[in-house]
Specification:
alpha/beta; Rossmann fold; 25% helix; 200 residues; single chain
Length: 200
């Protein structure tokens, strides 16, 4: 049975913090209302997720897949912390990094087929521990389809790490193995999550 690490819950009535308490980029200032997760909290939570990943997956070669393009910041930070833990462990394990993009819509219409764009031949995932890293999980439909695709290559283990998971009535009920924060169903930006991220 799949296990999920604990996540930090941001409640629906969370008031957030006043913008005047932070240095807000000018191009965001007119569109933001509150700060819900300060950067320092993201950093600390990401470090803890790295520990959880190494505890559960660190006994065998890890292939880390970054789901482009908004997820690269969380991916880079998480991998940096994992690499530090790996170097300082009694038994350092090999790690491979790759980048993929997913396409599940054609002319704004959802399709059953998920296309993986870029990345190496997925046959390299066979008998490896695969860590798929995403920035935010909304309904979970695309993630479930990606998992099914990856499992066709018989990895030793496959886990999803997502910085954010939204509470939404459209969710299919999937929960990643590693979650930073569970948040309310609002549009969020920052930490490379930007205006053009339609899935948020």
């Amino acid at each position: 049975m799949a296990t999920c690490s604990p996540r930090v819950m941001i409640s629906d009535d969370e008031p957030g913090c006043d913008l005047d308490l932070f240095c807000i980029p000018h191009h965001y200032a007119a569109d933001l209302e509150r700060v819900f997760i300060p950067h320092g909290l993201i950093v600390d939570r990401t470090k803890r997720l790295a520990q959880d990943v190494m505890k559960e997956m660190g006994g065998h070669h890890i292939i880390a897949l970054c789901v482009f393009k908004m997820g690269y910041k969380f991916f880079a930070d998480l991998l940096d912390y994992i690499k530090v833990l790996n170097r300082n462990s009694d038994r350092s394990i090999p790690m491979t990094v790759d980048f993929i993009r997913l396409k599940s819509y054609c002319n704004d219409q959802s399709t059953k087929d998920l296309k993986v764009i870029g990345g190496d031949d997925l046959s390299t995932l066979t008998r490896k521990n695969v860590l798929i890293v995403e920035d935010i999980l909304d309904t979970g439909k695309t993630t479930q389809t990606l998992l099914s695709l990856v499992k066709q290559y018989n990895p030793k283990m496959v886990k999803i790490a997502s910085l954010l998971v939204k509470r939404t009535s459209q969710s299919v009920g999937y929960r990643p193995g590693f979650v930073g924060f569970e948040i309310l169903d609002n549009f969020v930006i920052g930490y490379t999550l930007d205006y053009n991220t339609s899935g948020i």
